[in-house]
UniProtKB/TrEMBL annotation, chains A, B:
Species assigned in the record: Ferruginivarius sediminum
Aminotransferase class I/classII large domain location: 39-360
UniProt lineage: Bacteria, Pseudomonadati, Pseudomonadota, Alphaproteobacteria, Rhodospirillales
Pathway: Amino-acid biosynthesis
Listed InterPro entries: Aminotransferase_I/II_large (IPR004839), HistidinolP_aminotransfase (IPR050106), PyrdxlP-dep_Trfase (IPR015424), PyrdxlP-dep_Trfase_major (IPR015421), PyrdxlP-dep_Trfase_small (IPR015422)
Protein's recorded name: Pyridoxal phosphate-dependent aminotransferase
Pfam families assigned: Aminotran_1_2
GO molecular function: pyridoxal phosphate binding; transaminase activity
Keyword entries, A-Z: Aminotransferase, Pyridoxal phosphate, Transferase
Amino acid sequence: MADRYIPFTKVLRDLPASTPFVGPEALERRTGRAFRARLGANESCFGVSPKAAAAMREVADQVWKYGDSESFDLRRALAAKHGIAEEQISVGAGVDEILGNVVRLVVEPGTTVVTSNGAYPTFNYHVEGFGGRLHMVPYKDGYEDLDALLAAVRETGAPLVYMSNPDNPMGSWHDAATINDFVRALPAGTLLVLDEAYIEFAPQAAAPAMDPDDPQVVRMRTFSKVHGLAGTRIGYAIGHRDLVTGLDKIRNHFGVTLVAQVGALASLNDPDFLQGVIDQVAEGRRDYEKLARRLGFRALPSATNFVAIDVGGAERARFLLNALQDEGVFVRVPPVAPLNRHVRVSVGTPRERAIFAEALEKVAADMPAETEDG
Amino acid sequence: MADRYIPFTKVLRDLPASTPFVGPEALERRTGRAFRARLGANESCFGVSPKAAAAMREVADQVWKYGDSESFDLRRALAAKHGIAEEQISVGAGVDEILGNVVRLVVEPGTTVVTSNGAYPTFNYHVEGFGGRLHMVPYKDGYEDLDALLAAVRETGAPLVYMSNPDNPMGSWHDAATINDFVRALPAGTLLVLDEAYIEFAPQAAAPAMDPDDPQVVRMRTFSKVHGLAGTRIGYAIGHRDLVTGLDKIRNHFGVTLVAQVGALASLNDPDFLQGVIDQVAEGRRDYEKLARRLGFRALPSATNFVAIDVGGAERARFLLNALQDEGVFVRVPPVAPLNRHVRVSVGTPRERAIFAEALEKVAADMPAETEDG
């Protein structure tokens, strides 16, 4: 079989093997120990709505059926919630999947795409996976630098630009007026992916009004964060009808599980649970802020369910990441400057926050001295 | 906003809106009535292993966690089952998703892909979605015509050819020796997608031995059929390590749900349930055969959990499809000749088979006369 080979495309041959994230289970297998506090995967530590869990349990023996390929009931509920048309909503198996499909709509080999250096790696993964070229602008003071993003779009003529609001991994946010100014300033024919995975945790002023008639904005929403349904894989895009039609041309029509559709719908109908999560997250953010101050660090203001703690340098952050892992605490450190001087930690339950606080205090005592370039 | 537009790629602009299948829920919404017997979506009417259902219920409140991005436990179990290495298995959110990714590995705009005319529409959907060109050869006497497929591959130099064994939608099968001859005859650099979604229902002689060291074959297996887990979306590919690495470069690493992983593993560990499904399906196939004979039709021998019934002509088949739908019975008729003279019906439970038999007998009485070209 020496002459037999796999006829990969050029894009695939040129593509290095990469994984956007190493998951917590994979880390546990590598280290041979289980995490006591799972605070690094941007999950919701406050669990699932009991109504959603009950609805999912109820369909456990019904999953011989494919899920509805049109996610009809869920789209109808989402349309009502957002005051838009069902034809302006595309449901997918999580934002990761939808991001890949949106990239595929506009990126061919060689297409330039603009994003911030250190923003969502899975978006970058999709861009590179379709042969696109990333043009990355640096963060500025913990914020995505909208002026720099816009300048990069103009300079490169990129048809696609990514922004998350609130921001992952920093937790910062821009207000609706700023976002709207950015959108209006986009050149014709540049599509903005506005990733709003964490919007439910943000001040109301962070979310622009819905305008799905604008063909140049597609907004990403998810059930993985405040709804706590990450492990069922369901999210949605809000955009122009033509964009939804474009997604319909390429999406996996039967890809959203029956379990996810049922769980998401039940969760949407449990606003008390969701408000409870939001309130507990707000409380946890204040806890982390106090903890950071006590240890001489600085917690960045966050509009998400995680907090980026500036520990004073990249070397320190890396040290703390590893030391916390040895203590059974899973957090993340963004891999690029100037973000890499922060430890990003999900808001855990009070118990998980106590484990994190105790572990951080312990390992911080052995921390290396701060260096200039950290 | 008149000058604002979505910067679709040329492939997307040229791509017509299409959906591989209209799902049963969508049909119910169109007609305004629920199906009494859901026998058209290639689902398993014998449900889910009670062990799998219990395992899925147990994680219903754990789904705030993403599923393991490496599906480690499941891959280990599958590797043991098939006697191959974990690195030769790629788990995905159903065969539909994996098929799309395999197509993406080798198809760029203009690439020719060979398949049978009337074979799995979702494969074709992916090929066209990546700008590939389908070269389709006709079925022969209810079988995929391997000689014609091979001739087409040689003639076109296609890097990709699709075959299902057992066949969907006809239920026919080739034996392992025939498949192996086909594989050996492939030109170097042509990848065969061997879709074995229904292999558990087939005679043992239909499945070639595992040889994942051959870089030119990728086999598709699913939990949607005998395992009855269609609505959780989970399947896997078996192939060369380099092919699995290729999939790892582009797949959605966190795309397989926690629920699906847990359910699939529990189902794998319930061989008695699976054997029960296989036995009941065999019994149901015999029922359909008798029913067909009684009504003057011919049921094709089937190695799957559905049966294609030759009703004598395309016009008749279309009539029966619609008349059965009016009776609340959901079946399918393949859209292209010479397959379109068959009604394809899933093996239902005894109750569903009785509903189908009664409805078919009733509507067959009003059937149009057979025409020559039907």
